Amino acid sequence: FIRLVMVCCMCTMWTESYFDLFGAQGSKAFCSGGDQALRDSDGYVDFDSFGRLNVLDLQVQIRRLPKPVIAMVAGYAVGGGHVLHMVCDLTIAADNAIFGQTGPKVGSFDAGYGSSIMSRLVGPKKAREMWFLSRFYAAEEAERMGLVNVVVPLADLERETVKWCRQILRNSPTAIRVLKSALNAADDGHAGLQELGGNATLIFYGTEEAKEGKNAYMERRRPDFSKFPRKP
């Protein structure tokens, strides 16, 4: 999870990247969550022998990344791995994918995005079922529940994912960026509104109206905003 946090930070600054893909080598598992052997009373022990929940930073990075993040899921996406795919913007699943939460079985839970996002995706009752019973769900059922966008044969998973990526590339990157912030804002509270507001500010800074304000200040004159229409 620490490496994934670092990758997300790098992707934010890499202007040649228009979206990011999360997948795994092989077809048996996308991600099964935290290693219980590393879990201690203060979290999961990292390289410095301190307990942390680094996955929380990763979830925030995915939500704030100013470009789409796509989960390409084959095999098991359970526990923290299930939350990981849910916080991604899109999920493309192979027909062998298995989804579910395991936390209560091992004395754990995710009371953050793992609960709130799931409730948004599948509804409060189904979210309670998934957490309280800790069942696993096949790809087709996950699609019916709204957990994933599409299910394709395992052999076609990469091809379908590339197809979706190419369709995204045809669209305005700025529109996609602001739409992602807007869609997240309702779930992310003030932090989500701050992200949306920041993206709106960046767009405004590129307008002639904003430049007039800056230039007037630098030239020590009164700005002339009368030339910009006040649209209804």
UniProtKB/TrEMBL annotation:
GO annotation terms (biological process): menaquinone biosynthetic process
InterPro entries, alphabetized: ClpP/crotonase-like_dom_sf (IPR029045), Enoyl-CoA_hyd/isom_CS (IPR018376), Enoyl-CoA_hydra/iso (IPR001753), Enoyl-CoA_hydra_C (IPR014748)
Keyword Signal: yes
Ranges in coiled-coil conformation: none
GO molecular function: 1,4-dihydroxy-2-naphthoyl-CoA synthase activity
Recorded family membership: Belongs to the enoyl-CoA hydratase/isomerase family.
SUPFAM superfamilies: ClpP/crotonase (SSF52096)
GO terms for cellular component: cytosol
Source organism: Aegilops tauschii subsp. strangulata
Signal peptide positions on this chain: 1-17
PANTHER family assigned to the protein according to its UniProt record, in alphabetical order: 1,4-DIHYDROXY-2-NAPHTHOYL-COA SYNTHASE, PEROXISOMAL, NUCLEOSIDE-DIPHOSPHATE-SUGAR EPIMERASE
UniProt entry tagged with the keyword Signal: yes
Name of the protein this chain belongs to: 1,4-dihydroxy-2-naphthoyl-CoA synthase
Recorded superkingdom: Eukaryota
Keywords: Signal
